[in-house]
UniProtKB/TrEMBL annotation, chain A:
<feature type="transmembrane region" description="Helical">
    <location>
        <begin position="511"/>
        <end position="531"/>
    </location>
</feature>
<dbReference type="InterPro" id="IPR001851">
    <property type="entry name" value="ABC_transp_permease"/>
</dbReference>
<feature type="transmembrane region" description="Helical">
    <location>
        <begin position="70"/>
        <end position="92"/>
    </location>
</feature>
<feature type="transmembrane region" description="Helical">
    <location>
        <begin position="151"/>
        <end position="168"/>
    </location>
</feature>
<dbReference type="InterPro" id="IPR043428">
    <property type="entry name" value="LivM-like"/>
</dbReference>
From TrEMBL, chain B:
<keyword id="KW-0029">Amino-acid transport</keyword>
<dbReference type="InterPro" id="IPR028081">
    <property type="entry name" value="Leu-bd"/>
</dbReference>
<keyword id="KW-0813">Transport</keyword>
<dbReference type="InterPro" id="IPR000709">
    <property type="entry name" value="Leu_Ile_Val-bd"/>
</dbReference>
<feature type="signal peptide">
    <location>
        <begin position="1"/>
        <end position="25"/>
    </location>
</feature>
From TrEMBL, chain C:
<dbReference type="InterPro" id="IPR027417">
    <property type="entry name" value="P-loop_NTPase"/>
</dbReference>
<dbReference type="InterPro" id="IPR051120">
    <property type="entry name" value="ABC_AA/LPS_Transport"/>
</dbReference>
<dbReference type="InterPro" id="IPR032823">
    <property type="entry name" value="BCA_ABC_TP_C"/>
</dbReference>
<dbReference type="GO" id="GO:0042941">
    <property type="term" value="P:D-alanine transmembrane transport"/>
</dbReference>
<dbReference type="GO" id="GO:1903806">
    <property type="term" value="P:L-isoleucine import across plasma membrane"/>
</dbReference>
Automatic annotation (TrEMBL), chain D:
<keyword id="KW-0547">Nucleotide-binding</keyword>
<dbReference type="GO" id="GO:0015807">
    <property type="term" value="P:L-amino acid transport"/>
</dbReference>
<keyword id="KW-0029">Amino-acid transport</keyword>
<dbReference type="GO" id="GO:0016887">
    <property type="term" value="F:ATP hydrolysis activity"/>
</dbReference>
<dbReference type="InterPro" id="IPR003439">
    <property type="entry name" value="ABC_transporter-like_ATP-bd"/>
</dbReference>
Length: 615, 401, 253, 236
């Protein structure tokens, strides 16, 4: 490796870092003020790229020159900023008071909606934007050619940092934003129109996302996969830098940029893992990132399960329910049974998450990790050991539990949003391994031929097996929730200092909860693998984790029946919408947003609330 | 006499009654299930849908098959294996379709192949490329039209041999398609070019290429030739960075699929001229049958046909021929009619090889060239797939059935 | 042998010294008050004894055994109970379950999964609740209690661990006057009968002077005075720095 | 004289638990009214309900003759109604000067506006630490800053929630001086207190609140004279 190569590689890293920072900076700003983790930030970035790739050529057509180009970039960013305003006014403004998980879910709804809208507006094809006039030619650096546009990008990062710093430190708007970051209510009581302030912040955040996207057009064709690929990296940057810290984001982006530039030389096949490993390492050493602080979860934190009097005839009703479900094969056709099987599997999956979120207050964004581990554990056992289903099930459970033990050991040191992000990182690391370790996992093709043993090969038999395992696991988890162990988890959720002061080893308790929840999700994963006959990395992906969260939240985290209802509703919804229209993401997204607005406590929780209000 | 006539009348009545219901059965459409990632991969799947819809119209206008019209029941497969197999199940159990075709992504294709095997229903994969569908995961019920990875890489290696380049660099997306293409290339280049060596390998994450860093790293290895498997947004980024930094100057570049309109259209006027690619020079193919297809397609959709359009169009005609030859929609009959059958398609004569259910459809190999405002192919040649297919021994070693 | 011995504790945050060479001892059965203006370092000292904060230097000894770096859980096992400035209870549980939870932990049963938590130690919990006068509210949810009642529940929780030493951070903050006196009287009698040493901080000077057996005054991280209530009342430095000269404003009738 | 702040029939609930019942009270220009009650009696809720920080119903809720029921909090504040929260709630990441900047509002006609410099005259120790972050201030200093910050909005009236809670006795005395100074400037103060001695030292009138209901309203002297009332409502 000669010096000029190292220098060029470092410059490459700087250019990527700048681009990443500009986008991530908006995410961290919005989080700082509104406390909303905006999943849709990546979508805004994508819209910025599409807008610029469409608008800038048109402007260059009118008048070719650098002015048109840069003006086009800025206008595109402004348009995205206005889109941010629209999102704030129409949706976010209504849910600032909602539990943060619901906010997250709502923004994921926006992701779905924008995915379809972008295709409708800009067309499905990638759009290659023009290059910047005057910056087409490379410059010679140490005898190597380097694109001059990248030099502009390298300068743009620090320029944005300086501009944001100026706005935050030297303007009244910035002072107000920083004040609102800490205490919104007090800002309002001092006569500041916080609605306007939030709208302004969303504008700024969306503008930066749009700018980040628009600046990419000379390098990247605008494409429909941009949203989710950038959002994961933005999360890493904001978390590593410390949530809400702009300088932290800058530092994190610099490190990630260099890590990627030089990482591809050393580990050309594991680029995905490297970034998330960095995040895991940083959080293991500094639980709140470089410049972050512990998140104080205030009154908006979703409350989980609380003590209540056992429902009259609850056992009877549950028994009747189970018997009715067991009779389904008598009336249902095979397809209905297949759907019912999947609903049960996902109900179990969501229910295992309930142990973490509803009981332990541990918000996991990466629950797919355990679901996927369970599925892969079974599939790998079938594939490599030729084991039958009966042996593969315990193997899946074991792998999921082991994974949960390992991940949990890191995660329980954290709290709040950092915990959530660490679980996300863990799931992403596993995803990357499943995706890239082709020899063992089959890569994106996954593993097929994972079919159940003969005695449960029939639809009805497998359905009954799923029902039995689901009921047993749910009853077991319910037992745990009511046991001293579950109470101790709840105690740690209600008040960590109090729990510690009465001698509860909070971290160990949570670690055990992770293992139990992981094992539960692992069973669900194994069941799913055999019901489908195959596994692939998408089982470990972000959408799977979001599915679990959606089902849990739709159902309601305060109740035991919630996740069961949530999984049924989401599944049926998807099943009904998908055949009707190729715009199913739009409708699914709107449905999720609608439900967040209408059922702020989840279906079961809200209905129970109505019942109690009437009583 | 009276008795006879009585019997006669009865017989006539029964015959009429049966005839009527038979006639009704004959006009009821033949249901075929189709699924693809129409929402998530719209750029590729919508032209494909346009292709098969055109074929359905044409076929039904000419009276359908076996005297019955064809009805394609189409679903979105959600782009995931889970959704795909569930949707397939709905098509089979609820809609009662006779066979399935479709899907774009390789992993969905593999899962569908396995599904077909399990449920004993024919599945025709038009687009997915992974070798697994006809090799390791191949089965009696799964058929594929498009030339697979192995075949297309083989065609490019032939060109590599001609170029004389020895020091090769590989850039491929880090997922199954990219890795298996790279592995095949490594194997074949060493077999066919003595003294060839691989001097650099880069495997950027799919959709997340660090193009600048990747180009620098490849450049550092000073290769004579580059084998590219990246596609989509990764490809455009790679091309731009590579052009700016002069990576491709004086080097032989082989690139999979880049000559397909799907990939050329987004590149606009920035096509890397001189790259040797597999692709689809739709505008230059002069066979009358193909021209008729292009004209009909453009007339109906006012759009450029993509390779997907061609595949969609082809697959439906092949399904029609199969059902006609099978004389029924019975699965075993369909399989029998498909295996080792010859089809006269718009892309020429294609044989469905029986041992691996891989069609002998070939690919067009040529050089990229700028034609006006977008790229096209020049010096192209259609390579029939037959001579590039994996040998029977290889197939037997890989397949479990 | 003192019950609790604190030896030259030091703690700084950034450049700000929150505790400097703080040393004192707590004896069995005594109520020692730690007072000082806001920001004087009371909470810091308190949290170093409670295990929420590790000291930079110095030692904490319980019955001559060093617990300087022990976790809060270990301290609980050694016999330290505590209440918090802002009452900390388990809001999703009933009053009785709160105390049961503490008993479960005390009996090291918090990993049990086959039994119902509600069945554990209910009688003992009710016993403790009646000691603090909360037995009637046993089955109400903790989240609907008045603040003063939560403080009582907290006391019952702290007592469930059979502590030798009780740390109470502003035990009466946010309570009405009559309740304050009642709670402190209760605490006092518990301390005496069970021979528990109590260390508490407090802003209400009536509570401090009415109940403490000894008083420590902390100012800018250092102990500036220690002694009986009478001695502290007369200490000129304390008056000047903290108490001021207008007792009427402190709420004494 | 028309009251500056006129509250009649104010009720409020948290969830299903009603905490305020039919509260009526008036604040006139330049006077200090002490809202006295024990913890949990509804003092803080009353103040928050006036500002729209908790949802409440009222027959009449008017400030300077204008109805403020249902207005967003910031609009109420801009009309000239200041608020100092119970736990001070200064912005700890911001410097003293920035904290004051957040409170700044356009001046209102008829009164000389509070400027930073004028406030530093009233709170000399804040002047010395103008560049210091809120997190590095003592509780008493934070309380002073919270009041100064509210004054930057040039309010005609301030709702002051338990300024003496959790503060060293010596600072409590300084606090009384500050409130007197504000009164001298013509700012009316609605003071919530459970420290009745403190309230008595600065209040013109007293309102005693118990379980969400006003038990007594009248001149401070009458309240001081009524030992039975004090014993019953405050336990002293």
């Amino acid at each position: 490796m000669d010096l000029s190569f190292v220098a060029i590689q470092a410059l490459n890293g700087l250019a990527s870092a700048s681009s990443l920072f500009i986008t991530a900076c908006g995410l961290t700003l919005v989080f700082g003020v509104t406390r909303i983790v905006n999943f849709a930030h990546g979508s805004l970035y994508m819209v910025g790229a599409f807008t610029a790739a469409t608008l800038v050529p048109w402007m260059l057509e009118l008048w070719f020159g650098p002015v048109s180009f840069w003006l086009g970039i800025v206008i595109s960013a402004l348009i995205v900023g206005l889109l941010g305003v629209v999102i704030e006014v129409l949706l976010l403004r209504r849910i600032y008071g909602a539990p943060e998980l619901f906010q997250l879910l709502a923004t994921f709804g926006i992701v779905l909606v924008l995915q379809d809208l972008v295709v409708q507006i800009f067309g499905p094809q990638d759009i290659l934007g023009p290059r910047a006039p005057g910056l087409r030619a490379p410059v010679e650096i140490l005898g190597r050619r380097f694109p001059s546009y990248e030099l502009v990008l390298i300068a743009a990062g620090p320029a944005v940092l300086a501009a944001v710093w100026f706005v935050l430190r030297k303007t009244r708007f910035g002072t107000l934003i920083r004040a609102a970051t800490q205490d919104r209510e007090m800002v309002a009581a001092l006569g500041v129109n916080q609605a306007l302030l939030f709208t302004g912040t969303l504008f700024l955040g969306a503008f930066l996302a749009g700018l980040g996207g628009a600046l990419q057009i000379p390098r990247v064709a605008a494409n429909t996969g941009m949203d989710l690929s950038i959002i994961a990296e933005c999360f890493v940057v904001t978390v590593v830098g410390g949530m809400g810290s702009v300088p932290g984001a800058f530092l994190a982006a610099l490190i990630i940029g260099q890590l990627q530039a030089f990482g591809i030389l050393i580990f050309p096949k594991s680029t995905l893992v490297v970034v998330f490993l960095l995040m895991a390492v940083v959080l293991a050493i500094r639980p709140y990132g470089f410049f972050g602080r512990p998140e104080i979860l205030g009154g908006t934190h979703a409350v989980g399960i609380a003590s209540r009097k056992p429902m009259a005839r609850g056992t009877l009703l549950a028994t009747i329910g189970i018997v009715l479900l067991a009779c389904l094969p008598l009336i249902g056709d095979p397809y209905l049974l297949k759907v019912a099987t999947e609903i049960l599997v996902f109900a179990l999956f969501a229910f295992s998450l309930q142990l973490l979120i509803g009981v332990g207050g541990l918000v996991s964004f990466g629950h797919a990790a355990f679901f996927g581990l369970g599925a892969y554990g079974s599939a790998l056992t079938v594939k490599w050991l030729g084991a039958p289903m009966e042996a593969a099930f315990p193997a899946g459970l074991l792998l999921a539990a082991l994974g949960a033990a390992l991940i949990g050991a890191f995660v329980v040191r954290l709290s709040g949003i950092y915990l959530a992000m660490m679980t996300l990182a863990a799931a992403q690391i596993l995803y990357a391994i499943a995706f890239q370790w082709v020899e063992v996992t089959g890569g994106d093709n996954g593993i097929v031929g994972v079919w159940p043993s003969n005695w449960v090969a029939g639809r009805s038999a497998y359905y009954l097996l799923t029902l039995a395992l689901t009921v047993i696991t749910v009853l077991f988890l319910k037992k745990i929730i009511e046991s001293p162990f579950g109470y101790a988890l709840r105690a740690a959720r209600d008040s960590e200092p109090r729990a510690e002061a009465i001698g509860i080893a909070v971290r160990q308790q949570r670690w055990l909860a992770f293992i139990l929840a992981g094992a539960g999700a692992g069973i669900a994963g194994s069941l799913y693998a055999f019901s489908r006959g195959s596994v692939d990395p998408s089982l470990l992906g972000i959408p799977t984790s979001v599915d679990a969260l959606t089902m849990l939240l739709l159902g309601g985290i305060q109740t035991i029946a919630g996740p069961l209802a949530g999984s049924a509703v989401l599944h049926i919804l998807r099943d009904q919408i998908m055949p009707l229209t190729s715009l199913w993401r739009l409708f699914l997204g709107l449905s999720i947003i609608g439900m967040v607005l209408v059922f702020p406590r989840g279906l079961v929780g809200t209905i129970r609330q109505w019942g109690e209000d009437r009583a | 006499m009276a008795k006879t006539s009585m019997t006669g009348w009865l017989a006539l009545g029964v015959a009429l009654a049966l005839g009527a219901s038979a006639a009704q059965a004959q006009t009821a459409p033949i249901k075929i299930g189709e699924l693809n990632s129409y929402a998530k991969q719209a750029a590729f799947t919508v032209p494909y849908r346009d292709g098969w819809r055109l074929a359905v119209e044409e076929i039904n206008a000419k009276g359908g098959v076996l005297g019955r019209p064809i009805e394609v029941i189409s679903r979105d497969d959600g782009g995931t294996t889970g959704d795909a197999t569930r949707v397939a199940d709905e098509l089979v159990t609820r809609e009662g379709v006779s066979l399935l075709f479709g899907s774009f992504l390789s992993n969905v294709g593999v899962a569908m192949a396995d599904y077909a095997n399990q449920k004993k229903i024919v599945y025709i994969a038009a687009e997915p490329l992974t070798d697994a569908i006809t090799m390791a995961q191949g089965n009696r019920y799964t058929f594929r039209i498009r030339p697979n990875n192995f075949m297309q890489v083989g065609m490019l290696v032939e060109q590599a041999k001609a170029s004389g380049a020895k020091r090769w660099a590989i850039v491929a997306p880090n997922y199954e398609y990219g890795q298996s293409a790279a592995a095949v290339f490594k194997r074949l280049i060493k077999e066919s070019v003595p003294g060839a060596e691989i001097v650099a390998e880069q495997y950027p994450a799919l959709g997340k290429i660090e193009a600048g860093a990747t180009v620098s790293a490849l450049e550092q290895a000073k290769p004579d030739g580059i084998f590219n498997v990246t596609f989509g947004p990764d490809l455009t980024q790679f091309v731009r960075e590579g052009n700016t930094r002069g990576l491709f100057e004086g080097k032989t570049v082989l690139s999979l699929l880049t000559g397909e309109p799907e990939w050329l259209l987004p590149l606009k006027d920035e096509v890397p001229e001189g790259w040797i690619v597999t692709g689809y020079p739709w505008d230059e193919i002069t066979e009358p049958k193909h021209k008729a297809f292009v004209d009909a397609y453009r007339a109906k959709y006012n759009d450029t046909p993509r390779l997907g359009s061609l595949l969609g169009y082809m697959v439906l005609y092949m399904i029609r021929d199969t059902i006609e030859r099978a004389g029924s929609t019975d699965t075993d009959a369909i399989i029998k009619a498909l295996e080792d059958a010859k089809f006269d398609t718009v892309a020429g004569t294609v044989t469905m090889r029986g041992i691996d259910n891989q069609s002998s459809m070939g690919a067009w190999v040529g050089k990229l060239v700028l034609k006006g405002k977008s790229g096209g192919m020049s010096d192209w040649k259609y390579n029939d797939g037959t001579s590039y297919m994996p040998s029977e021994a290889e197939v037997k070693a890989a397949r479990k059935d | 042998m003192s019950l609790l011995a604190v030896e030259r504790l030091n703690k700084a945050f950034g450049g700000v010294v929150a505790a400097h060479d703080v040393s004192f001892a707590v004896e069995r059965g005594e109520m020692l008050a730690l007072i000082g203006p806001n920001g004087a370092g009371k909470s810091t000292v308190f949290n170093m004894i409670g295990g929420q904060l590790p000291p930079d230097r110095g030692a904490v000894l319980l019955e001559d055994k060093a617990i300087t770096l022990a976790s809060p859980q270990e301290r609980f096992r050694q016999g330290i109970g505590r209440t918090f400035q802002i009452a900390q209870a388990f809001h999703s549980m009933t009053v009785c379950e709160n105390v049961q939870m503490a008993l479960i932990s005390h009996h090291r049963e918090s990993r049990a999964i086959w039994t119902e938590a509600r069945q554990h130690h209910r009688r003992d919990a009710l016993d403790l609740l009646s000691q603090v006068g909360m037995a009637e509210a046993a089955d109400r949810s903790c989240s609907v209690l008045a603040y003063g009642d939560v403080k009582r529940v907290e006391l019952a929780i702290a007592l469930a661990g059979e502590p030798k030493l009780l740390l109470m951070d502003e035990p009466t903050a946010g309570m009405a006057f009559r309740e304050r006196a009642a709670l402190m009287d209760l605490t006092h009698s518990i301390a005496r009968t069970r021979r528990i040493g109590i260390l508490f901080t407090e802003h209400d000077m009536d509570v401090v002077f009415g109940h403490a057996s000894r008083i420590l005054v902390l100012l800018r991280g250092e102990i500036i005075a220690a002694g009986s209530p009478a001695e502290i009342r007369e200490n000129a430095q304390v008056r000047q720095a903290y108490l001021g000269n207008a007792p009427a404003l402190t709420g004494a009738p | 004289m028309t009251p500056l702040l006129d509250i009649q029939g104010l009720s409020a609930s948290y969830g299903r638990a009603q905490v305020l019942f039919d509260i009526s009270l008036q604040l006139h220009p330049g006077e200090v009214v002490a809202l006295i009650g024990r913890n949990g009696a509804g003092k803080t809720t009353t103040l928050k309900a006036i500002l729209g920080l908790v949802i409440a119903r009222a027959e009449r809720l008017a400030f300077k003759g204008q109805s403020i029921a249902g207005l967003p909090t910031y609009r109420i504040a801009r009309l000239g109604l200041g608020y100092v929260a119970e736990d001070r709630r200064i912005f700890t990441d911001l410097t003293v000067e920035e904290n004051l900047e957040v409170g700044r509002q356009a001046q209102r006609a008829g009164r000389s506006p509070w400027s930073r410099e004028r406030l530093f005259g009233l709170f000399p120790n804040l002047a010395e630490m103008r560049g210091r972050r809120g997190s590095q201030m003592s509780g008493g200093e934070q309380q002073m800053l919270a009041i100064a910050r509210t004054l930057m909005g040039n309010p005609d009236a301030i709702l002051l929630d338990e300024p003496s809670e959790g503060i060293a006795p010596v600072i409590v005395q300084a606090m009384a001086e500050v409130i007197r100074a504000m009164k001298a400037e013509g700012v009316a103060v609605l003071l919530s207190e459970q420290n009745w001695a403190f309230a008595a030292a600065i209040g013109d009138r007293a309102c005693v609140i118990e379980r969400g209901t006003i038990r007594f309203a009248g001149p401070m002297a009458d309240f001081l004279a009524d030992e039975a009332l004090r014993a019953e409502t405050l336990g002293v």
